[in-house]
Amino acid sequence: MQKQEYTITVYTENQVGLLNRIAIIFSKRKINIESLNTSPSEVDSVHRFTIVIHETEEVVRKLCRQIEKQVDVLKAYYNTNEEIVWQELAMYKVPTDVIAEQVQVERLLSQHGAKAVVIRKDYTVFEVAGHREETDNLIRVLEPYGLIEFVRSARVAIIKSSDGFHRKLTQFEYRDPGEQVMENEYLDRKEEVFSM
Q: Would you tell me how many other CB atoms lie within 10 Å of the CB of residue 49?
């Protein structure tokens, strides 16, 4: 199997230490995380991790199963780039005098969909949302004009074919209980079982 980029989406309860436990799953297998984003999800009190890695599908499938074994994890999915809609946010700091003096830079920024976030006497900060290739391309464009600083966010992604985790969760909550009554074999032996 050939390695490719996968986006792993993990729905979790918001618990302290869970990020560390998930990161350990990757580090034990010596898998580099390209991008990691955590945020609230569409379900109240459920968080969403978006993790980007470059691996084979077999390894990614095993990782998802391992992640789902964590107590606070509700569900983990993996998708290729074709199966999701995704973006990254990038910010660029450039000298304001260069922008003011050279109209060409302003034209380049508008061609790349950049928008000014902060304009000061000494520098201007622009932001662009897009795919990695688009944000990297603007770095190369701005370097000759004195790019001072650059930062890019982690990936945010929505699964194209998903009905949303909220719908799956509500289906699970309202599923009819089974007809068959199960007897607990330890119910009548509580003194024996729970004595120290």
A: 21
d(CA 150, CA 147): 8
State residue 99's pLDDT score: 79
The pLDDT assigned to 52 comes to 97
Strands 84-95 and 149-152: antiparallel
Q: For residue 89, is pLDDT > 90?
A: yes
Q: Which residues, including other chains, have CB under 8 Å from residue 81's CB and lie 6 or more apart?
A: 5, 7
Q: How far is CA 89 from the centre of its chain?
A: 13
Q: In this structure, which amino acid lies at residue 131?
A: H
Is 195 in contact with 186 (CB distance < 8 Å)? no
The pair of three-digit structure tokens given for residue 31, joined into one six-digit string: 């898998």
Place of tokens 């089974």: 178
